[in-house]
Amino acid sequence: MKSHVRTLQIAFTYIGTIVGAGFATGQEILRFFTRYGHFALLTILLSTALFIWLGTKMMIIARRIEADSYEDFNRHLFGEKAGASISLFTMVILIGVNSIMLAGAGAIFQEHLGLPYQAGLLITILGSYFLLKRGINGILQINSLVVPLMLTLSLIIIFNTFGLPGAERFLFLQTDSSIFGAWMSPLLYTAFNLGMAQAVLVPLARHTDDEQALVRGGVLGGLGIGFMLLAAHFAMSSQMPGILQFEVPMGSIAFRLGPIVQLIYLLLIFLEIFSTFVADIYGVSVQLKQRLPIAPTLVTPLLMLICYLFSQFGFSSLLGVFYPIFGALALVWVIMLLRAPTSLPPRTGEPPSPESKGITIVAVKPAIRIRK
Question: Coil, strand or helix: which one is 162?
């Protein structure tokens, strides 16, 4: 029973880390999938397979090399010097992304609740701080609450779309976009999101004793992400091309389902931003504690202060600066992950898995040196 609970916690955390503000609003899905018409169904399936395979592979490798942070993991992928430099750049990008999430929370409070922008920032920061005092367990708990609600809303949207004219449009929707762009899109989307998720999934794997729970959690998490992609694409395809005019396309769908669903949707957008913010802050804090010669208890408040200052520049401007840069780096990162072997020795005291049998001493030495 404990193993099954851990599996669900890992799956929910995986989904909650990937699903952020861009996913919840529908802009990411519209940009990377729906606008490619009938190709989108196949590219979503490809992206789902990549999330299952690469997300699980990342967690298994992270656990076997005992990586405490994504910097340890990047050193394993790229080597000591290149890995350290890439991790430093990744940290800067993640701080920018965290600032974007924080700015998004402020925008929700201002635009939809009629409350001050700064109130949204401060509530998010204070809530995150107290949750992070629980460590990795706090992240598992918040995602175990948020993700089932997100999956439920996806089901509601699917059932509502079935009764609308044009529900079958996702199978035949035409597009003027290139085939090359359609098939590159799931690769870029998966790379970008896994590049961000490593900040959480690597320490999560390090704190998981049961490797099979990681495997099952990675598979369920990838399937859950794929299901939510399909649900949103199915709903938005039925409204094409008119839905392209909306800045929050999923919001236009949810708002037609009545005030209760509208309120639930706004709450979920905030909770998705909140859970992603908490997860990324945790991941960056773990890396900074390895680098900075200050008291560990000061790292998280200092990081939140930096994000708060950056969030004053607003949501859109930060989005335009940081996302394209990180997307290019993430594609290189995924290529290295694809090439990385999983045939590493399990941790001390555990029986070797079938794939790790027969490893020579030459293969073991690099892993030992990395852990030091």
Answer: helix
- 240 φ/ψ angles, rounded to the nearest 5 degrees: -75, 150
Query: For 303-345, how does the pLDDT look when each residue is reduced to its tens digit (9 = 90+)?
Result: 888 888 877 775 555 556 666 777 777 888 888 888 887 766 5
Residue 258 lies in a domain: yes
Q: Which residue has tokens 């941790």?
A: 347
CA angle, 7 then 11 then 17, to 5°: 145
Give me the CATH number covering residue 75. 1.20.1740.10
In 3D, which of 30, 72, 357 has the Cα closest to residue 201? 72
Give the pLDDT confidence score for residue 360 in this predicted structure: 36
Q: Which residue segment(s) compose the domain that 294 sits in? A: 2-340
Q: Is the pLDDT of residue 348 over 50?
A: no
**Residue pointed to by tokens 């970008």:** 192
d(CA 71, CA 66): 12
**Torsional class of 26: left (φ above 0), alpha (ψ -120 to 50), beta (otherwise):** left
pLDDT digits (tens, 9 = 90+) for 276-288: 888 888 888 887 8
Residue 46 in any domain: the answer is yes
Per the structure, how many domains does the chain have?
A: 1
Distance from C-alpha of 164 to C-alpha of 174, rounded to nearest angstrom: 19
Q: Is the dihedral of CA 363, 54, 152, 275 positive or negative?
A: positive
Please indicate, yes or no, if residue 365 is contained in any of the structural domains.
no
Q: Name the E strands within 142-259.
A: none
Do 19 and 228 form a contact (C-beta atoms < 8 A)? Answer: yes
pLDDT digits (tens, 9 = 90+) for 164-213: 666 666 676 777 777 887 888 888 888 888 888 888 899 888 888 888 98
pLDDT band at 53 (very low <50, low <70, confident <90, very high): very high
Cβ neighbours of residue 36 closer than 8 Å, sequence gap 6 or more:
43, 175, 177, 181, 182, 185
Query: For the range 316-322, what are the long-range contacts, defined as Cβ-Cβ under 8 Å and sequence gap of 24 or more?
Result: 318/96, 318/99, 318/100, 318/103, 319/100, 321/96, 322/93, 322/96, 322/97, 322/100
Q: What is the rounded CA–CA span in Å between residue 61 and residue 205?
A: 9
Is 356 part of a structural domain of the chain? Answer: no
